[in-house]
Amino acid sequence: MIGPPAKTRTAARPALAAAFVCGAVSVAGFEPFGLGPLAIIGLACLIHLWRSTDSPRLAATLGFAFGLGFFGAGVSWVYVSLHVFGAMPAPLAALSTFAFCAYLALFPALVGSLQARLALPEWVRTVLLIPALWTLAEWLRSWLLTGFPWLSLGYSQTDSPLSGFAPVAGVYGVSFMAASVAGGLITALMTRQGDRHRALASVAAILVAGGLLVQLDWTEPHGEPLPVALIQGNIAQSLKFEPGAYERTLETYRRLVGAGLSDGKAPARLIVLPETAIPRFLDGVDPDYLEGLARDAGNRRADVLIGVPVRQPGGAAFNAVVSLGASGTQYYAKSHLVPLGEFVPAEFTWILSVLRIPLSDFSRGGLQRPIAAAGQLVAVNICYEDAFGEEIIRQLPEATLLVNVSNVAWFGKSLAPEQHLQISRMRAIETRRSMLRATNSGVTALIDRRGAVVARLPQYEQGVVRADAQGYSGQTFYVRFGNMPILLLSLAACIAAVLAGIGYRGASMR
Question: Which element (helix H / strand E) includes 44?
Answer without folding.
Answer: helix 36-51
